[in-house]
UniProtKB/TrEMBL annotation:
GO terms for cellular component: cytoplasm; nucleus; plasma membrane; vesicle membrane. It comes from the Eukaryota. GO terms for molecular function: calcium ion binding; calcium-dependent phospholipid binding; phosphatidylserine binding. Residues 20-39, 47-56, 65-87 have a biased composition (Low complexity). Residues 89-102 have a biased composition (Pro residues). Pfam families: Annexin. It comes from Saitozyma podzolica. Residues 1-147 are annotated as: Disordered. SUPFAM superfamilies: Annexin. Keywords: Annexin, Repeat. The lineage of its organism: Eukaryota, Fungi, Dikarya, Basidiomycota, Agaricomycotina. This is Annexin. Belongs to the annexin family.
Length: 458
């Protein structure tokens, strides 16, 4: 549980509650930005030839990753534009026997219509995370150049902004906020090569409080940021349950694989064992299912199986004295996004209550929040856009702003910019104000400028 509601204000110093940004973002094995102990150029780093199997290649049995290795040039493919504008009305629901519409482009595991990465990664041949292409993790060789991006120029901007007395926070914000996953990775490595220390270390030294938290999390990129947040969720007294829910539930098999491998690489620990140590009883079993990385990712929906699952969910919940938690968990954790969307459409037609409402009435505590997160993501648009807009509002509603939640929800959402655009449209439709104005009303100073800059990148 959260530690004493410590979201309201960052403490003046020292490790605080969950709401306070930690003093150090480094891993036990060294600085995170180096990806491995001793940095890129030492044992197993980027400049060393890989031992045995290439990291980027999925293991036998598959993890939902593309068939070719991450480092290999994939066949060219056009991502294609989504059929409807994000702000437009949804089209008619697809029949259960056909693939569910993908308003953000791509099937599960292929992202949400995010723009393609560099040419060598177009077509989905490299790893994808949060719906966008990302650089292949070590020991795959890093990208040394990117067309249209001058990492050396940005590295020099940051060096000048942090040199001498005082820090030019505005330049740091303007430099980091526009970057995609590949540009951020290249900038981090270029900065360390140029200055002699990691970008993360510089940001920690020059900044403080929520601005530091925002820019450090941003500088880690999509995968690195989630690995850091997982460590944050399980570190110290108490467990930050909302972080576990949002980072581990509803992920593709490839993403689960990347998280487990990345966590072991950075922190030297087995993520499954770490999470298991934070939970107990049936909630532990729920997250073991999620961490198995064995979801059905077939985009085609079997309508007969959907009806069977609807009845199983009802019999295990409202139709039973007591609740069969494991039966419900097994369906919600293992089914594809398209299948869950079909269940969410069929359940109220059959039983006159929404799936998320059933979950809320049958469960309590962390189990309820976790399953509600999955169910709400399947409802409405079926892509979690409505749910994510609601979570952003929840971070700002009521007395005081839950700053840490607001920061990581914005930073994680912004990597997939077409999908983030859809979240912003949904936020405005639901709350009659723009996300930008809502954030401006809840924050101030350079911290506000950083969040607004992230929002304005779309």
């Amino acid at each position: 549980m959260y530690n004493n509601g410590g979201y309201q204000q960052p403490p003046p110093g020292g490790p605080g509650g969950y709401g306070a940004p930690p003093q150090s973002y480094g891993s036990p094995a060294g600085q995170y930005g180096a990806y491995s102990q001793g940095g890129y150029n030492q044992g197993g780093g980027y400049n060393a030839p890989p031992q045995q199997q290439q990291y980027g290649a999925p293991p036998p049995g598959g993890y939902g990753a593309p068939p070719n290795q991450y480092g290999a040039p994939p066949p060219q493919q056009n991502y294609g534009a989504p059929p409807n504008q994000y702000g437009g009305p949804p089209g008619p629901p697809a029949p259960y026997g056909a693939p569910s519409p993908q308003p953000f482009g791509g099937q599960q595991g292929q992202g949400f219509g995010a723009p393609p990465g560099p040419p060598q990664f177009q077509g989905g041949g490299g790893p994808r995370f949060l719906g966008v292409p990302i650089p292949a993790p070590p020991p795959a060789p890093p990208i040394s150049t990117l067309s249209g991006y001058n990492a050396q120029f940005d590295a020099e901007r940051i060096r000048k902004a942090t040199k001498g007395f005082g820090t030019d926070e505005r330049t740091l914000i303007d430099t980091l906020a526009p970057l995609d996953a590949f540009q951020m990775d290249l900038l981090s490595r270029t900065y360390e090569q140029t200055v002699g220390r990691s970008l993360k270390t510089t940001l920690e030294k020059e900044l403080s409080h929520w601005l530091e938290y925002t820019l450090v999390l941003l500088s880690l990129g999509p995968l690195g940021g989630d690995i850091y947040l997982l460590h944050r969720a399980c570190k110290g007294a108490g467990t930050h349950e909302d972080l576990l829910n949002e980072i581990l539930l509803g992920r593709t098999n490839e993403e689960i694989f990347l998280l487990k491998e990345g966590y072991r690489r950075v922190y030297g620990k087995d993520l499954v064992q770490v999470v298991r140590g934070e939970l107990s009883m049936k909630t532990e079993r729920l997250f073991n299912m999620a961490l198995s990385g064995a979801r059905d990712e077939n985009p085609y929906v079997n309508h007969q199986q959907v009806q069977q699952d609807v009845e199983t969910l009802h019999r295990a919940g409202p139709g039973k004295i007591g609740t069969d938690e494991i039966a419900i968990c097994g369906i919600l954790v293992s089914r594809s996004d398209q299948h869950l969307q079909a269940i969410a459409q069929a359940f109220p037609q059959r039983h006159r209550v929404n799936l998320s409402q059933m979950i809320h009435s049958e469960f309590s505590g962390h189990m309820r929040d976790a399953l509600h997160f999955i169910a709400r993501g399947a409802e409405m648009d079926g892509q979690g856009v409505t749910r994510d807009a609601e979570l952003l509002e929840a971070a700002m509603a009521g007395m005081g702003t839950k700053d840490e939640r607001l920061i990581y929800r914005l930073v994680r959402a912004h990597w997939n910019r077409p999908r983030f655009g859809a979240i912003k449209n949904q936020f405005q439709a639901s709350y009659r104000t723009t996300l930008r104005r809502r954030v401006e009303g809840e924050t101030s100073g350079k911290y506000e400028k950083a969040l607004v800059a992230i929002i304005d990148q779309n």
